[in-house]
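Exam revision sheet. Question 4 asks you to relate a sequence to its structure. Input first:
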Amino acid sequence: MRKFALFVAFALVASGTNLQAQGRGMGRASGRGGPGGPAMMMDRLLFKDITLTDAQKAKLEDLHKAERDQMQAQVGRGGGAADFEAIRDAREKGDTATVRRLMADQRDKMEARRNERIAALRAILSSDQVAQFDANVDEMKKRQAEMPMAGGRRGGPPTKP
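Answer key, structure tokens:
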């Protein structure tokens, strides 16, 4: 269950939903009055030390709206529930090879979505801002690579409980 929760949290980070830009950096999620969540944290990291113009903020909000609309449409179509069902079924059958393959497929899909999102965010920026953004992307990827994953670190041996 812990692995599944971590997987879902990572999926939310990758998808970048429920965001809104305000002020110098990233503000609060609309209508909630509090910090946005994993996707908001991702934007804060990516736009660290970058001051967006009003036009850039408007483009960013348009991107966020498109992401929210896409996510709602996916939820309406089942939102990948079949993928999670297949993982659960394989886990219940004890088929660890299939579970690992399906989880790797999901990680690859999330990585592709994250890279698409990063490219879309990068396209909003001026040429002067791109160098700082690229440095922020590198720092974010470094942090994520160091994050403990369920059962251990990514690419390393499992840690003992």
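Marking note for examiners. The chain has a mean pLDDT of 75.
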